Description:
Helices cover 72% and strands 0% of the residues. By secondary structure, the protein is an all-alpha fold. Helix 12 packs antiparallel against helix 13 (287-301).
Amino acid sequence: xxxxxxxxxxxxxxxxxxxxxxxxxxxxxxxxxxxxxxxxxxxxxxxxxxxxxxxxxxxxxxxxxxxxxxxxxxxxxxxxxxxxxxxxxxxxxxxxxxxxxxxxxxxxxxxxxxxxxxxxxxxxxxxxxxxxxxxxxxxxxxxxxxxxxxxxxxxxxxxxxxxxxxxxxxxxxxxxxxxxxxxxxxxxxxxxxxxxxxxxxxxxxxxxxxxxxxxxxxxxxxxxxxxxxxxxxxxxxxxxxxxxxxxxxxxxxxxxxxxxxxxxxxxxxxxxxxxxxxxxxxxxxxxxxxxxxxxxxxxxxxxxxxxxxxxxxxxxxxxxxxxxxxxxxxxxxxxxxxxxxxxxxxxxxxxxxxxxxxxxxxxxxxxxxxxxxxxxxxxxxxxxxxxxxxxxxxxxxxxxxxxxxxxxxxxxxxxxxxxxxxxxxxxxxxxxxxxxxxxxxxxxxxxxxxxx
Length: 452
């Protein structure tokens, strides 16, 4: 019975998110093939929106009880009604078909390789979850720990940010803890099937967004190849099963990049949706703050309007500001003083150590010899020669994220070698799904028709 209730607790935000995405990107009265993309996007959007609703409820009423469940179900019904009202026809279906990929002759081989890879990934995920049902490292020390405080605390839920837990990164946002805690409200118990289910859905949704977006842009075989590359990245599946926040934030990075690159094929509300997913990345991990700042910069550089993007992001960013200013302690970077910052920035050994760390992690990325150097080497080429504005903006954002990572390492107050060894592989993994999408997207040289 708890398993069934846990399933319902994850079904409600999934339905809410799918309906909201379908309201922003209208579809047919009945389902069409592009609803798979909207469903994959909707899983993450719904999870993020329900996490935000849970936090607002805590701030307003101080404790969560069964009435909150009724509010969530009511929100799902309203979102579904809006989606039905907006079902004016799928614009993606009305666009003229794109030329077939040259990979069509390899269709059956691609299907076999992709199928075997996906099955292997599912088995690996299941085994990791069976061996480590509580997750690993940060999962039980940060995300699930915070969720337990929110679930058990009642009126004292703010104890989750007690100074006695300073080792637990109290400044990290609450998307995952809030999402887990609200599902435990449904089940009435701290069943571990909830965080496992959330981790599985985020991992599957990231793969689904990658494949379905590339299918919508033309080339099913190319989409399957891209999915095979992502699923074949051992560390991606392993970190997903470990219940870390890196795969959820990678999902939001990927979703934002996809919506930016597809903006010419989507109605204007698609850009609003990109703002929502980018802001939810910031509500997931601190790295998302850099991402949500870089996207408007890239759009302004490409002379694209940023107003609709900010319309989607502003409410979630306001909620994040309330959390950061009212609950969370200062970030560990605040431990630096001005003299210390200048000394670190002027230290050449730190630059050499960071460069060595990047070279090592890139050459060992993926866990099984997968080397993503080619996409990173290709990024400047894409910036210069791609005639797709969305791809150029996405490349600027991804390069900006890497520059931002370097900047954080330069001024980190903790031991630099330890910090790089502990985090750089996961930071690169956050960008990996979006990088795979960008490389396969730009490999298609066919023209992209505009929204009609």
